[in-house]
Amino acid sequence: MTEVLPSEYRYCLYARKSTEGDEKQALSIDSQIKEMTQIAEREKLNVVEIRRESHSAKESGQRPVFEEIVRDIDNGIFNAIITWAPDRLSRNAGDLGKLVDRMDQKKLITIKTFGQNFTNSPSDKFLLMILCSQAKLENDNKSINVKRGQRTRCEMGLWPAQPPTGYRKVDGRLAKCEVEIDPDRADIIKQIFEKIAYDKWSATKVHAWLKYDLNFRTLRGYHLSIGNVFKVINNTFYYGKFEFPKGAGIWYEGKHTPIITKELFDETRNSIRSQVIKSQGKEFAFTRIMKCGVCGSGITADEKFKKLKAGGVNRHVYYRCTKAKDRSCKNPAINETDLVTAMIKMLDTISLDQVKLNMKLNTEIQKFKKLQAMFLGKKKTEKIETIDVRDYARFVLNEGSVLEQRSVLECVSSELTLKNGKVISNGVT
Questions:
Q1: For 164-186, what is each residue's pLDDT tens digit?
Q2: What is the CATH number of domain 6-140?
Q3: Looking at the domain 167-281, which fold is it?
Q4: Shortest CA distance to 207 belongs to which of 199, 198, 197, 196?
Q5: C-alpha 108: how far from its chain's center?
Q6: Alpha carbon 323 to chain centroid distance?
Q7: Portion of the chain with pLDDT greater than 70, in percent
Q8: How do strand 11-16 and strand 80-82 relate by DSSP bridges?
Q9: pTM of the full predicted structure?
Q10: Do the strands 416-419 and 334-335 form a parallel or antiparallel pair, or are they unpaired?
Q11: Which residue ranges make up each domain of the chain?
C-alpha cells in the first residue's frame, strides 16, 4: 500500500461531551472545537469536517456520530482524527478496537490529541490503548463508588434520586439526598389516596379531578397522567419505606416524613384491586360502539340500583360521555331501555353487515336443530322459515344477553353518536 504523505491527511475533528451530570468535563464541546481548530490552523492540518456529539462513551456502539466517523473512515472520507484527548474517542474496549483495527488496516493514519500524536506504530497504539483503558478503569471505579455511596445513603434512610411528587429536595440540592414535604402538593397526594380508599374513586376520576378541577402540576410543571396516578398509589415511599434500586428486593426505612399511613396505602390498593376485578366482570352492551355527539369522547356506562318500597331492587344502566376530550361536556345521559328502543327503531335505516349477521343467525338455527334432535327426541328437525336478519337483530337487542347484544352491534357499520338523549346514525336521527 502506498504511503500516505502528511499533506494528504484528511482530518475529522471530533468533539464529545458526556450527557452524564456527574462527569466533570474540563472543556465543553465548543471549547474543544476552538482549541483543536487553533492547533489545526497552527500546524496547517487539513480538517475536512467537524463532528460533535453529546453522548457517553462508556458503552460500545451507542454513539451514532462516532459510528458515522468509523464508516466514513472505511469509505475513505477521513484518514485521520483530531480530538482533545483519547477519552473523547473511547472509554470502552469495543470502540477502541474499531479504531485500532483501522490503524492496522492503514485506513486510519493518525489520531492527534492536544498533547500527543498516535500513529500506526506498535508503541503508539499500545500507549493509546493504555490511556483509553485507564479512562475505562476510572469509569468502572466511579460506578462502583457511586453505587456504594447510594447504598450507604439508603441505609441512612436517605433517598438518592429525584424525590416523588409531594416531596422536594432540601435546599434544592439533590446531593444531600434529603427530602422534605412539598407544602404545595403533599396534601393533594394524600387526598388521592383518600378518595380512592374511602370514596371509591377510580384512577380515571382522580386523573380528571387533578387535571380539570385543580389544574394540579408537578414541580416540573407537568400534569399527572393516569399512569402517573397508578405510580403514586403504588409508591411505598409515601408511607416511609422504599426499595432501591427498583426491583432489587432491598428495602429501607426512610428518614423522611410520611405523607400517609401504611393502613391508608393498603386500603387504597385494596380499593383499586376490587375496582379492577369488578370492571373485568362487568360488561355493557353499548360501550365502545358509539361516540359523544357533542365533544367526540367515548361513551361509558354507569349501573345504578334503587330500592323499592314494596321490597326488591330496580336496576338501571345509563350511558354517558366519558368527557375525556372536554371536561365541561354537557351531553346528557340516556337510559339503556330508551337506548335499546331507539336502536330497534333505527334498524331499518342503518347499515348492517348482512353476511356476518346471517352467519350468526345460521349458527343459532343450527344450535336449535341440535337441541331438537338431542333433547326432544326428534330425529328429523322441523323446517324453520326464513328469518330476516333485521328481525333477528331486533329480537337479540330486546331479549338477548349482553354478549349477544354486543355481537349484533358489532355488525353495525354506520357511525353512531349519542347527542341530547338521542342516537344518531351518520348525522341522521
A1: 999 999 876 655 678 999 999 99
A2: 3.40.50.1390
A3: Hect, E3 ligase catalytic domain fold (3.90.1750)
A4: 196
A5: 43
A6: 22
A7: 84
A8: parallel
A9: 0.46
A10: unpaired
A11: 6-140, 167-281
